[in-house]
Amino acid sequence: MSKRRVTYYYDADTGSYTYGLGHPMKPHRMRVTHDLVSAYGMLDKMHVLRPKRATPEVMTAFHTDEYIHFLNRVTPETAEELTYHGTRFLMGEDNPAFEGVFEFCSISAGGSISAAQRISSGAADIAIHWAGGLHHAKKREASGFCYINDIVLGILELLRTYPRVLPRHDMLIPQIREYFPGTGTQEDRGRGKGRNYTVNIPLKDGITDEAFKRVFEPIVNKIMEIYRPGVVILQCGADSLAGDKLGCFNLTMNGHAHCVQYLRAFNVPLILLGGGGYTVKNVARTWTYETACALGIQDEIDPNLPWNEYFEWFGPRYRLEVPENNMDDLNVRDGSLDKVRATALQQLSQLPCAPSVGMHEVPRESLGRHLGLDIAEEDADEDGGTDDLDRRLAQHSRFVYKLQEPGGGSDESDDERYDSDGSSYRRRKRMSILSNRVVNVDPDVGRAQPRGRRFFKSAVRWDETYGRVRLGKEPVLGSLNGSRLGGMMEATGRSTPGGDVMMEDWEDGTSV
Fold first, then answer.
1. Residue 372 pLDDT more than 70?
2. Residue 127: closest CA among 9, 11, 295
3. Which of 42, 119, 189, 333 has the lowest tally of Cβ within 10 angstroms?
4. 182-211 pLDDT, tens per residue?
5. Residue 218 and residue 349: Cα distance in Å, rounded?
6. Cis amide bond preceding 316, omega within 30
7. What pTM was computed for the model?
8. Given this model, what pLDDT does residue 78 score?
């Protein structure tokens, strides 16, 4: 097998985070995988890099400003308040607000973006980032154990260089239509200009290596023939392995890794990302073996595990293998697999040719940096580096969000919501992966009607008169004379004996 230039991204801090006691998602699996890869001596055969962590600005290439701002400041103690009692951003039990959630997201997103940049620069043929692949995250909220959709961010980076990018999910689970209503069926083929460019392969419980190979190879071969991607992103979620705590498939380690070997043979730039997988020892085994497949040395490594820090975890066999179990393959029993394959091939045949894209020279720096509009972190001052551009953007944002006040001319329904990009969306029912219960919440419960949303603005102010920090809700006593102050106190701060109404702008911390 021919050699490839492989770049391997790993941040040692990834395995230090935890979703909480009893949660099936274990970031520690990345550390176990890395230790096993190191024990096999593969690091010397790759270019090992620590990825640059993604900044909030980079994350907003896909996600909304308010969602990124929320992730940047949420803690387990403030989650109830900042999510409006579980009605925004983090809903249900799948995505807890654990300590360091934003740092964890910055590592995941930064690694996938760095891998995309490495491929785009031509410095590598294959890039591996097992901490990525958290593809369930939505534009304005977390979903399915995922907070930041690093795959989308990586695709946006690749599209600066490649006209066509092929992202491929690992496998579709049978409950996909329950967890994510309206998706997962073969009739779900995209919309608008993207019509027919989505291919779904719904599979039933217990699929084995041979059955999966029968449907995977002809469909992927047809996609590569018609779509002709310049780069492929392979999301190698390991929840399809036999014996996974949440999965329901019956694939072995070799059957799972066959996807990597098959796509590698096309000699197209390839990015390997992680994803699901909740039996930690099997995840580590599989991703280690797939790292060997990327290097082309899968036939050279010893199936008996070498000594490593987590050697006891792999007992009692201590081998690099994930065997199948005795599950029944429902796909073969009812003959649905052949129908799924035939339908997918028929849909792909409707695409006449690969879509053409007008390509232009990609600038090495953003327009904002070229014009000097951005603020480097090292030059930012202690109060956040606020300059005239920040103030003008904030003023424009207040004007835009002011239009969304009650009675402001909007005739949208109560379920309509707005975000920083001006787009609207409606609430839908969600089903938790953990509890299989539908999360149906009222988005207005426990939420005061806003005067106009203001983001990235603290309620803390510096009082020049008294030389101290005060909260935004604290009235400015120095601006009131004695008679008015006494009258306000007698009228509980609402009106004076003369009937004058005292109104306070709590957000600005000033009195009117």
1. no
2. 9
3. 333
4. 557 888 788 887 788 888 898 999 999 999
5. 12
6. yes
7. 0.73
8. 93
d(CA 304, CA 298): 13
Strand-pair partners of 425: 417
Give SS3 for 470. strand
Count of beta carbons in the 10 Å neighbourhood of residue 21: 5
Question: pLDDT (tens digit, 9 = 90+) per residue, 138-161?
Answer: 999 999 999 999 999 999 999 999
Question: By C-alpha distance, which of 152, 59, 49, 50 is closest to 101?
Answer: 59
* 258 belongs to the catalytic site: no
- 447 contacts: CB under 8 Å, gap ≥ 6: 84, 85, 87
Model confidence at 502, in pLDDT bands (50, 70, 90)? very low
Sheet containing 270-273: give its strands across: 47-49, 6-9, 126-129, 270-273, 231-235, 165-168
Of residues 34, 63, 136, 256, which has the active-site annotation?
136
CA distance 200 to 183: 9
| Helix (H), strand (E) at residue 431 | strand 430-431
**Integer Cα distance of 34 and 320 in angstroms:** 14
* Start-to-end Cα distance in the chain: 76
- Residue scoring higher pLDDT (372 or 179): 372
Contact 472, 461 (CB under 8 A): yes
Residues 123, 135: Cα–Cα separation, whole Å: 25
Residue for token digits 């304005």?
140
* Extended strands (E) in 18-143: 47-49, 126-129
Neighbours of 259 (CB within 10 A): 24
Mean pLDDT of 312-338: 91
Average of pLDDT values for 453-476? Answer: 60
d(CA 460, CA 447): 21
Cα distance between residue 71 and residue 84, in whole Å: 14
For 223-254, the pLDDT digits (tens) are 999 999 999 999 999 999 999 999 899 999 99
Burial class (CB in 10 A: 0-12, 13-18, 19+), 148: buried
Question: Which tokens hold the place of 133?
Answer: 């692949």
Q: Which residue is associated with the tokens 């904030």?
A: 394
Question: Would you say 133 and 33 are in contact if contact means Cβ atoms under 8 Å apart?
Answer: no
**Percent of the chain at pLDDT exceeding 90:** 55
Strands (E), 208-348: 231-235, 270-273
CB atoms within 10 A of CB 240: 26
Say if residues 348 and 219 touch (Cβ distance below 8 Å): yes
